[in-house]
Amino acid sequence: MNTDFCDRTGWQFWIDRGGTFTDIVAKCPDGTLVIHKLLSENPDRYTDAAVQGIRDILGISADVPIPAAQIEAIKMGTTVATNALLERKGDRTILLITKGFGDALRIGYQNRPNIFARHIVLPEMLYDRAIEVAERYSATGEELIAVNREFIPSLQQAYDEGIRSCAIVFMHGYRYSQHEQQVAEIAKEIGFTQISVSHEVSPLMKLIFRGDTTVVDAYLSPILRRYVEQITSQLSVGAVPPCPP
Predict the structure, then answer these.
(1) pLDDT per residue over 176-227, tens digit each?
(2) Both 96 and 184 in a single domain?
(3) Where is the Hydantoinase/oxoprolinase N-terminal domain (predicted)?
(4) CB distance 129 to 219 below 8 Å
(5) Within this chain, do residues 117 and 195 fall inside the same structural domain, yes or no?
(6) What secondary structure letter does DSSP report for 10?
(7) C-alpha dist (Å) from residue 5 to 44, 60, 77, 186, 232
């Protein structure tokens, strides 16, 4: 692809990485737009379509680092997380939830698309298992039960099994978050690298909606983080500078 008409400084890239094709619109410093399309998966030619597309547009061979200093911004939309969710290929995740509610997300809202079906097929849960934590706030913020640390051996066992993601969802945690914060700190001390707490991810009153969203965050965030790190690692000068407002 010939891009000699541009000075190759201050490039901006907008990338849509889909399951089949990756589409790129690039804006060179003089305002000219360049459009490029390539297969999202082509392991015989490249490891990542977005990176290869940038190389193609800049006219850089595979053995030359991408010059981050010449790039003003990279903005990307991707189905990487969506595909991981549909294919159940996210990171193994532990759910930490208020004692007595270990089956709450499994039970859900009892939605039945076919009300007369006698054989109910429940969806596969995203978390490996639930660890119940003895703690409780009332709906008005009164601490009824302080955090009991008896859950720590179970959490440590999950870590020893190789699990690095955990979702923390407590009753009324959307409004009174101290217990979620305490348990998150314990998980961090153990070594968990992805800790999703419901009062940050989805501060909603409803436990099921809040819990489902928090579990999805813990399940998929490591996938997205690794993908972003894969992109930035191929830039020759650190991270891409942010686009000015």
Answers:
(1) 999 999 999 999 999 999 999 999 999 999 999 999 999 999 999 999 999 9
(2) yes
(3) 13-191
(4) no
(5) yes
(6) S
(7) 30, 15, 28, 56, 26
